[in-house]
Protein backbone atom coordinates (compact mmCIF):
# COMPACT_ATOMS: atom_id res chain seq x y z
CA UNK A 1 0.00 0.00 0.00
CA UNK A 2 1.01 3.58 -0.67
CA UNK A 3 1.41 6.30 1.92
CA UNK A 4 -1.42 8.78 1.35
CA UNK A 5 -2.47 12.20 2.57
CA UNK A 6 -5.54 12.28 4.79
CA UNK A 7 -7.33 15.59 5.33
CA UNK A 8 -9.70 15.90 8.28
CA UNK A 9 -11.78 19.05 8.53
CA UNK A 10 -14.75 20.08 10.59
CA UNK A 11 -16.05 22.49 13.23
CA UNK A 12 -14.49 23.07 16.65
CA UNK A 13 -14.24 20.21 19.15
CA UNK A 14 -15.62 17.57 16.77
CA UNK A 15 -12.93 15.12 17.87
CA UNK A 16 -10.73 15.71 14.83
CA UNK A 17 -7.40 15.77 16.65
CA UNK A 18 -8.16 12.78 18.89
CA UNK A 19 -9.16 10.65 15.91
CA UNK A 20 -6.44 12.00 13.61
CA UNK A 21 -3.75 11.09 16.16
CA UNK A 22 -5.04 7.52 16.45
CA UNK A 23 -5.24 7.05 12.69
CA UNK A 24 -1.74 8.52 12.17
CA UNK A 25 -0.33 6.24 14.84
CA UNK A 26 -1.94 3.13 13.34
CA UNK A 27 -0.74 3.96 9.84
CA UNK A 28 2.71 5.14 10.92
CA UNK A 29 2.02 8.57 9.40
CA UNK A 30 2.85 12.02 10.69
CA UNK A 31 0.04 13.86 12.47
CA UNK A 32 -0.21 17.59 11.80
CA UNK A 33 -2.54 19.74 13.88
CA UNK A 34 -2.90 22.95 11.87
CA UNK A 35 -5.09 24.64 14.49
CA UNK A 36 -2.05 24.64 16.77
CA UNK A 37 -0.23 26.90 14.31
CA UNK A 38 -3.04 29.47 14.27
CA UNK A 39 -3.17 29.25 18.04
CA UNK A 40 0.58 29.87 18.32
CA UNK A 41 0.54 33.07 16.24
CA UNK A 42 -2.53 34.21 18.19
CA UNK A 43 -0.66 33.73 21.48
CA UNK A 44 2.20 35.82 20.15
CA UNK A 45 -0.17 38.54 18.90
CA UNK A 46 -1.92 38.72 22.26
CA UNK A 47 1.40 38.96 24.11
CA UNK A 48 2.68 41.59 21.70
CA UNK A 49 -0.52 43.58 22.10
CA UNK A 50 -1.00 44.16 18.37
CA UNK A 51 -4.32 45.19 16.88
CA UNK A 52 -5.93 41.79 16.30
CA UNK A 53 -8.17 43.18 13.58
CA UNK A 54 -5.27 44.27 11.38
CA UNK A 55 -4.09 42.01 8.57
CA UNK A 56 -0.99 44.21 8.10
CA UNK A 57 0.04 44.12 11.76
CA UNK A 58 -0.39 40.36 11.72
CA UNK A 59 1.83 40.19 8.65
CA UNK A 60 4.59 42.23 10.29
CA UNK A 61 4.45 40.04 13.38
CA UNK A 62 4.58 36.85 11.31
CA UNK A 63 7.64 37.97 9.38
CA UNK A 64 9.49 37.84 12.69
CA UNK A 65 8.01 34.55 13.95
CA UNK A 66 9.04 30.94 13.77
CA UNK A 67 6.49 28.21 14.34
CA UNK A 68 7.55 24.55 14.40
CA UNK A 69 5.55 21.40 14.91
CA UNK A 70 7.66 18.57 16.32
CA UNK A 71 6.11 15.10 16.12
CA UNK A 72 6.35 13.32 19.48
CA UNK A 73 4.96 10.10 20.93
CA UNK A 74 1.17 10.42 20.85
CA UNK A 75 0.96 13.84 19.19
CA UNK A 76 3.09 16.89 18.54
CA UNK A 77 4.95 19.63 20.32
CA UNK A 78 4.40 23.24 19.26
CA UNK A 79 7.36 25.62 19.29
CA UNK A 80 6.87 29.36 19.02
CA UNK A 81 10.23 31.05 18.39
CA UNK A 82 11.86 28.01 19.94
CA UNK A 83 9.71 27.97 23.07
CA UNK A 84 7.38 25.08 23.86
CA UNK A 85 3.86 26.58 23.91
CA UNK A 86 1.92 23.30 23.57
CA UNK A 87 -0.03 23.95 26.78
CA UNK A 88 -0.30 27.75 26.60
CA UNK A 89 -2.07 27.70 23.24
CA UNK A 90 -4.98 25.68 24.71
CA UNK A 91 -6.07 28.42 27.15
CA UNK A 92 -9.48 30.08 26.82
CA UNK A 93 -7.63 33.37 26.32
CA UNK A 94 -6.12 32.08 23.08
CA UNK A 95 -9.18 30.07 22.03
CA UNK A 96 -11.41 33.15 22.16
CA UNK A 97 -9.08 35.20 19.96
CA UNK A 98 -7.88 32.63 17.42
CA UNK A 99 -10.66 32.91 14.82
CA UNK A 100 -10.01 36.63 14.38
CA UNK A 101 -6.29 36.03 13.72
CA UNK A 102 -7.01 33.05 11.46
CA UNK A 103 -9.24 35.16 9.21
CA UNK A 104 -6.31 37.29 7.98
CA UNK A 105 -5.09 36.59 4.48
CA UNK A 106 -1.42 37.14 5.33
CA UNK A 107 -1.67 34.74 8.25
CA UNK A 108 -3.33 32.01 6.20
CA UNK A 109 -0.92 32.34 3.30
CA UNK A 110 2.07 31.76 5.56
CA UNK A 111 0.48 28.89 7.49
CA UNK A 112 -0.66 27.05 4.36
CA UNK A 113 2.87 27.30 2.97
CA UNK A 114 4.28 25.77 6.15
CA UNK A 115 1.61 23.07 6.20
CA UNK A 116 2.22 22.06 2.60
CA UNK A 117 5.93 21.83 3.28
CA UNK A 118 5.32 19.61 6.32
CA UNK A 119 3.13 17.26 4.25
CA UNK A 120 5.44 17.01 1.24
CA UNK A 121 6.11 13.50 0.03
CA UNK A 122 5.01 11.57 3.10
CA UNK A 123 2.00 9.88 4.65
CA UNK A 124 0.19 12.47 6.76
CA UNK A 125 -3.00 12.95 8.68
CA UNK A 126 -3.67 16.68 8.83
CA UNK A 127 -6.57 18.26 10.67
CA UNK A 128 -8.02 21.74 10.42
CA UNK A 129 -10.70 23.75 8.64
CA UNK A 130 -9.45 24.17 5.07
CA UNK A 131 -7.21 21.14 4.55
CA UNK A 132 -9.38 19.36 1.99
CA UNK A 133 -10.39 22.59 0.27
CA UNK A 134 -7.08 24.52 0.18
CA UNK A 135 -4.05 22.97 1.87
CA UNK A 136 -4.10 19.45 0.40
CA UNK A 137 -6.61 19.63 -2.46
CA UNK A 138 -5.21 16.39 -3.92
CA UNK A 139 -5.45 14.39 -0.66
CA UNK A 140 -6.48 10.77 -1.37
CA UNK A 141 -8.89 10.84 1.56
CA UNK A 142 -10.86 13.83 2.83
CA UNK A 143 -13.16 13.56 5.81
CA UNK A 144 -15.50 16.23 7.09
CA UNK A 145 -16.11 15.35 10.72
CA UNK A 146 -18.90 16.86 12.75
CA UNK A 147 -21.18 16.30 15.73
CA UNK A 148 -23.99 18.29 17.32
CA UNK A 149 -22.84 21.46 19.09
CA UNK A 150 -24.20 20.11 22.41
CA UNK A 151 -22.15 16.94 22.08
CA UNK A 152 -19.03 18.85 21.07
CA UNK A 153 -19.36 21.18 24.07
CA UNK A 154 -19.88 18.20 26.37
CA UNK A 155 -16.74 16.48 25.05
CA UNK A 156 -14.65 19.63 25.42
CA UNK A 157 -15.99 20.01 28.98
CA UNK A 158 -14.86 16.48 29.85
CA UNK A 159 -11.48 17.01 28.21
CA UNK A 160 -11.00 20.30 30.07
CA UNK A 161 -11.74 18.65 33.41
CA UNK A 162 -8.63 16.50 33.03
CA UNK A 163 -6.59 19.65 32.52
CA UNK A 164 -8.21 21.46 35.46
CA UNK A 165 -9.98 23.97 33.25
CA UNK A 166 -13.38 24.77 34.72
CA UNK A 167 -15.20 26.82 32.06
CA UNK A 168 -18.97 26.14 32.45
CA UNK A 169 -20.64 23.97 29.81
CA UNK A 170 -22.95 26.76 28.57
CA UNK A 171 -20.00 29.09 28.08
CA UNK A 172 -18.10 26.41 26.12
CA UNK A 173 -21.08 25.81 23.89
CA UNK A 174 -21.44 29.53 23.16
CA UNK A 175 -17.71 29.86 22.44
CA UNK A 176 -17.75 26.86 20.08
CA UNK A 177 -20.81 28.14 18.20
CA UNK A 178 -19.26 31.60 17.87
CA UNK A 179 -15.95 30.19 16.58
CA UNK A 180 -17.74 27.98 14.01
CA UNK A 181 -19.70 30.99 12.80
CA UNK A 182 -16.57 33.12 12.37
CA UNK A 183 -14.63 30.27 10.73
CA UNK A 184 -17.50 29.51 8.31
CA UNK A 185 -18.23 33.11 7.39
CA UNK A 186 -14.72 34.47 6.85
CA UNK A 187 -13.73 35.41 3.31
CA UNK A 188 -10.43 33.56 2.99
CA UNK A 189 -10.66 29.74 2.98
CA UNK A 190 -13.74 29.41 5.19
CA UNK A 191 -14.67 26.20 7.00
CA UNK A 192 -16.48 24.19 4.35
CA UNK A 193 -16.87 20.58 3.37
CA UNK A 194 -14.83 19.76 0.25
CA UNK A 195 -16.93 18.42 -2.59
CA UNK A 196 -15.08 15.12 -2.54
CA UNK A 197 -15.02 14.75 1.27
CA UNK A 198 -16.75 11.96 3.16
CA UNK A 199 -19.09 13.33 5.83
CA UNK A 200 -18.72 11.64 9.20
CA UNK A 201 -21.18 12.48 11.97
CA UNK A 202 -19.59 11.39 15.26
CA UNK A 203 -22.42 12.50 17.57
CA UNK A 204 -23.23 8.92 18.54
CA UNK A 205 -19.88 7.31 17.71
CA UNK A 206 -17.20 6.38 20.24
CA UNK A 207 -13.59 7.38 19.58
CA UNK A 208 -12.82 3.79 18.61
CA UNK A 209 -15.75 3.66 16.16
CA UNK A 210 -14.86 6.97 14.53
CA UNK A 211 -11.20 5.95 14.15
CA UNK A 212 -12.25 2.59 12.68
CA UNK A 213 -14.47 4.30 10.11
CA UNK A 214 -11.56 6.43 8.91
CA UNK A 215 -9.12 3.49 8.94
CA UNK A 216 -11.47 1.57 6.67
CA UNK A 217 -11.64 4.47 4.19
CA UNK A 218 -7.85 4.91 4.38
CA UNK A 219 -7.24 1.24 3.62
CA UNK A 220 -9.52 1.41 0.61
CA UNK A 221 -7.57 4.34 -0.79
CA UNK A 222 -3.93 3.56 -0.03
O1 LIG B 1 -8.54 23.05 15.57
P1 LIG B 1 -8.51 24.16 16.59
O2 LIG B 1 -9.78 24.28 17.36
O3 LIG B 1 -7.32 24.09 17.48
O4 LIG B 1 -8.35 25.48 15.70
C1 LIG B 1 -8.33 26.74 16.30
C2 LIG B 1 -8.76 27.80 15.30
O5 LIG B 1 -7.77 27.94 14.30
C3 LIG B 1 -10.04 27.54 14.54
O6 LIG B 1 -11.20 27.93 15.26
C4 LIG B 1 -9.85 28.39 13.29
O7 LIG B 1 -10.15 29.74 13.53
C5 LIG B 1 -8.36 28.28 13.06
N1 LIG B 1 -8.01 27.28 12.05
C6 LIG B 1 -8.13 27.62 10.72
N2 LIG B 1 -7.71 26.77 9.75
C7 LIG B 1 -7.20 25.57 10.06
C8 LIG B 1 -7.11 25.17 11.42
C9 LIG B 1 -7.53 26.06 12.39
O8 LIG B 1 -8.60 28.71 10.42
N3 LIG B 1 -6.77 24.77 9.09
Instruction: Note the main sheet.
Output: 5 strands, parallel
- Classify the beta-strand content into a percent band: 15-25%
As for the CATH topology, it is Rossmann fold
Tally of separate helices: 9
What ranges have pLDDT less than 50 throughout 5 or more consecutive residues? none
N-to-C series of helices and strands: EHEHHEEEHHEHEHHEH
CATH class: Alpha Beta
Task: Average the pLDDT over all residues and give the rounded result.
Answer: 96
Task: Please give the alpha-carbon distance between the first and last residues.
Answer: 5 Å
Taking all Cα atoms into account, the compactness measure Rg is 16 Å
Shape summary: globular
Overview of the structural elements:
By secondary structure, the chain is α/β, with parallel strands linked by helices. It has one domain (5-221): P-loop containing nucleotide triphosphate hydrolases (Rossmann fold, 3-Layer(aba) Sandwich), CATH 3.40.50.300. It is built from nine helices and eight strands. It has helices spanning 16-27, 34-48, 55-63, 92-102, 105-119, 131-135, 149-162, 169-185, 207-221; strands at 5-9, 30-33, 67-72, 75-80, 83-84, 124-128, 141-146, 198-201. The strands form two sheets. It has a five-stranded parallel sheet with strand order 2-6-1-7-8, sandwiched between helices. α2 packs across α4 and α4 (92-102) runs parallel beside α8. It is globular. Bound molecules: cytidine-5'-monophosphate (C5P). Cytidine-5'-monophosphate (C5P) is lined by residues 12, 34-35, 38-39, 98-99, 102, 128-131, 179, 183. It catalyses: dCMP + ATP = dCDP + ADP; CMP + ATP = CDP + ADP. It is an enzyme of class 2 (transferase). GO terms for molecular function: kinase activity. This is Cytidylate kinase.
